[in-house]
Amino acid sequence: MSDFATPAPIAVALDAPDLASAVVLAGQVKDSVSTFKVGLELYMRYGPDAVQQVRDAAPGRLLFLDVKLHDIPNTVGGAARAVAHLQPD
Predict the structure, then answer these.
(1) What is the pTM of this model?
(2) Is 30 a catalytic residue?
(3) 43-81, pLDDT tens digit by residue?
(4) Domain extent at residue 43
């Protein structure tokens, strides 16, 4: 028997064409999943607002900020520090 109060360990990639679509999707499935992924394209287009709106649409769910940084270590470190205030899970 499933416990529907506990979301399944499923991550949903919010690879939507725009932020509004991603937020709607997050709201629709939030009770069935544990994690949402905000990828590079969505983040580059909408910035920190994408993270906040997904969190608002699906409170209590994990958020994976998947921006695949690849550069010299100093630059990657700086970029990671720049998004650390968003507290991705």
Answers:
(1) 0.82
(2) no
(3) 999 999 999 999 999 999 999 999 988 899 999 999 999
(4) 8-86
